[in-house]
Amino acid sequence: NRTLYFSRHGESEYNVLGKVGGDADLSSRGRQYADCLAEYVNSTLGSIPGFKLWTSCLKRTIQTAKNIKAPQEHMEALNELDTGVCDGLTYEEIAERYPIEFAARDDDKFHYRYPEGESYLDLLLRVQPVLDRLKVEDNVMVIAHQAVLRCLLAALLNKDEKELPYIHTPLHTVMQLSFNRAGGGCHLELIPLSI
Ligand code: F6P
């Protein structure tokens, strides 16, 4: 069997405020998650030969990974969906300032591209090199972002473009993906860490 691990970063200051995008620091709860995750990984996974960690280049994933003892790689390709002109706004503010855009996104979330930003389709193409590597890797933990993890999970679990932008990716939870080499099956387990 082959196992991959995914986690969103711990709660960020922007998550607390309900703002999208940005490059915020972790909140105090987010820092607690970083401590719990490090304890979990260092005690259970850290001893697996070849275990490694990939994060985005944004502060919140790097801060989440900080105390994990494993080789780390930071990748721009794993940065969160670029929300363009909506960066730093709450969903309420987007609905108020850009009502037509807001409705268009609701109508076709996969193809909708934020003005001066990205769509889920753009993001899926951006993470393709990471996916190519993940298809042959074992014991990698990816610490990234909601939209990015939806793209990775959809590709690995064969979810279609309608489902992809709505895949449940809770905060403060390790998503463990086990692939059965023989049958080609894949099993997703959610491991919430209590903080
Ligand atoms: O709210 C956190 C966040 O990572 C935002 O930065 C990002 O725009 C959003 O999630 C993606 O989720 P959705 O596509 O559901 O808006």
Features:
binds 6-O-phosphono-beta-D-fructofuranose; six-stranded mixed sheet; globular; 195 residues; 8 helices; alpha/beta
Topology:
Elements lengths: L1 E7 L4 H5 L10 H18 L6 E4 L3 H7 L6 E3 L16 H7 L1 H9 L12 H7 L1 H7 L5 E5 L1 H12 L15 E7 L6 E7 L3
Parallel strand pairs: 1-4, 2-3, 2-4
Antiparallel strand pairs: 1-5, 5-6
Helix pairs in contact: 4-5
Bound molecules: 6-O-phosphono-beta-D-fructofuranose.
Could you explain how this protein is built, in words?
Helix 4 packs across helix 5. The protein has a six-stranded mixed beta sheet, with helices on both faces. The protein is built from eight helices and six strands; from the N terminus they run βααβαβααααβαββ. The chain has helices spanning 13-17, 28-45, 59-65, 91-97, 99-107, 120-126, 128-134, 146-157, and strands spanning 2-8, 52-55, 72-74, 140-144, 173-179, 186-192. 37% of the residues lie in helices and 17% in strands. It is globular and about 50 Å long. The longest helix has 18 residues, at 28-45. It has 195 residues and is of the alpha/beta class. In the C-terminal section; belongs to the phosphoglycerate mutase family. This is 6-phosphofructo 2-kinase/fructose 2,6-bisphosphatase long form-like protein.
Instruction: Characterize the largest beta sheet: strand count, sense, and whether it forms a barrel.
Output: 6 strands, mixed
User: What is the average per-residue confidence, as pLDDT, rounded to a whole number?
Assistant: 97
Report the radius of gyration as a whole number of Å: 17 Å
Global geometry: globular
Helix content: 25-40%
Poorly predicted runs are none
Q: In percent, how much strand structure appears in the residues? A: 15-25%
Please identify the structural class as seen in this structure: alpha/beta
Distance between the termini: 30 Å
Q: What is the element string, with H for helices and E for strands? A: EHHEHEHHHHEHEE
